[in-house]
């Protein structure tokens, strides 16, 4: 815990110094992105207005941002592979580098014509992920462009689709869960073949007669702090010049947004690691309740000591270490 406290210092400093140096970009995708692989299968066209990735039997393709970002609000419009996209995966994510990397993922798992895509999300902090939540969408993501957003501030990460929040990952450092906030991340995207697992768990394979498969991107917008040579663009100015454009910095879900989040979770969420109790069969916690959250409060009945947990965090006690009395959970968040 001590190391966690000290590692939060740089961010606090950053926030105190935050001025108006956020980079807001929209205009030309050439300014913000480099094609990173695919041997000509990825293209920025229409004077930088449109980026396309394609996949054929030989290769997929990908791009990455020129900038690294450390907190901000990042929007991109995507139009996914239409028709029979089974076996294909379009990934769009933020990631830092190194073995204890942080990552915030959107992955779109294709499907047969007329069958629903799965929007897969995951958050890694310090190299640990396994925090998957999956959704169906309430529209056809191949018919038109839709906006996929990541709000990333020191308190929370909010995933939104067309402005509707679908997932919130809160900063729970106070209870020992690492939160991504000290490692700058680049934006990456790629389109590749993953027919060993993507569609109905790998049952449906890519139909190469439909290739090339193409996904499109436009209207990138980052109200974000960029990171360069060890310094944030947000700390290089005086507080007096701060503008209102940093509202994302303290943004949280108001009650209307919380209702929409619950609507999505109730009607469109198809997997949530938080309530995947099977995954935790070897642990003694008695998980009661339900809902979309992860923060569990338990009481060790032998000591009356309270435990605050997030399911994945491996803070569950393996069965063989069970102490007399065990632990009974009292409450499940949300
Ligand atoms: C594809 O469609 C099937 C049948 O409706 C569904 O079970 C599955 O979740 C869909 N998505 C993926 C990516 O497999
Ligand atoms: C900033 O916010 C204040 C208070 O809400 C408002 O009066 C002012 O007009 C805003 N300035 C800009 C540039 O939007
Ligand atoms: C789990 O908790 C519920 C509610 O307190 C209780 O009814 C149930 O018996 C408990 N299950 C186990 C295996 O302890």
Describe this structure in words.
There is one protein chain. The chain is mainly beta and 334 residues long. It has two domains: 249 residues, Jelly Rolls (Sandwich); 57 residues, no CATH class. The chain has four helices and 19 strands. The strands form two sheets. The protein has a 16-stranded antiparallel sheet that branches. The chain has a three-stranded antiparallel sheet with strand order 18-17-19, with no helix packed on it. Bound molecules: 2-acetamido-2-deoxy-beta-D-glucopyranose (3 copies). The site of one 2-acetamido-2-deoxy-beta-D-glucopyranose (NAG) has 8 residues, from loops. This is Xyloglucan endotransglucosylase/hydrolase. Its EC number is 2.4.1.207.
What are its keywords?
about 325 residues, mainly beta, Jelly Rolls, 2 domains, 16-stranded antiparallel beta sheet, 3-stranded antiparallel beta sheet, 19 strands, about 10% helix, about 40% strand, globular, disordered N terminus, disordered C terminus, binds 2-acetamido-2-deoxy-beta-D-glucopyranose
